C-alpha cells in the first residue's frame, strides 16, 4: 500500500480553492477549509436570511408606474423668476434661494427700490440662471464696495434686509458659479 502524505493538496468541496489535507476540516459529508467552517450562532433564534418574510404589511396592488428615482418633489424644486428692468425684484421666500434671469435679454434694474422692501433680518439669495441682471448701488440696495453687481448665469449673491435705512445689504457674492 503506498504511503499517503498528510500534506496532500486537495480542492475545497465548497469553494473550489486548493487547500492542503492537513488544513481541511470535516463538515458533514464535505472537507472544507477551517475559515469556511460554519459554526452555529450563539443562540437558537433565527438570524433570518433568504426567503424569510418581514412582519410588515404587504403592498398589494400598488401602482409603482408613477414612481421614478429621478423625480424631484415639487416642494424642493426652485422655480425661475424672470425679472424686468422696471418691475425690479420681488423676493420669494418659499425656497432657500431664488433663481433669477432677465426677461428675454440682459437688463439693468431701473425700479426704485430695485428689490422690494423686506422685513428685518430677512435673507435673500439670488442665483443667476440665464440672461444677466445688473444691480447698481442705491435705490434700496447697498452693494459691497459700491460696485455694480451683474448676476449672470452661475453667479449668486446674498442680501440681508435691515429696517435701519430700509436697505438690502449685500453680504456675499460668488462669481465663480454654483
Task: Tell me briefly what this model is.
This protein is an all-beta fold and 178 residues long. The chain has strands at residues 9-11, 18-20, 25-27, 30-32, 80-83, 98-102, 107-108, 123-128, 133-135, 141-142, 149-151, 156-162, 167-174.
General description of the model:
With 178 residues, the chain is mainly β. It has 2 domains: 1-38, no CATH class; 78-174, Sandwich (Jelly Rolls), CATH 2.60.120. Helices cover 0% and strands 29% of the residues. It contains no helices and 13 strands. The radius of gyration is 35 Å and the shape is rod-shaped.
List the main descriptive attributes of the protein structure presented here:
Jelly Rolls; 178 residues; three-stranded mixed sheet; mainly beta; six-stranded mixed sheet; 29% strand; 0% helix
User: Cα distance, first to last residue?
Assistant: 81 Å
- Give the helix proportion (percent range): under 10%
Question: Per DSSP, what share of the residues sits in E-state strands of 2 or more residues?
Answer: 25-35%
Radius of gyration: 35 Å
The largest sheet has its strands arranged as: 5-6-8-12-13-10
> Structural class, judged by helices and strands?
mainly beta
Which oligomeric state applies? Answer: single chain
Second-tier CATH architecture of the largest domain:
Sandwich
The major β-sheet equals: 6 strands, mixed
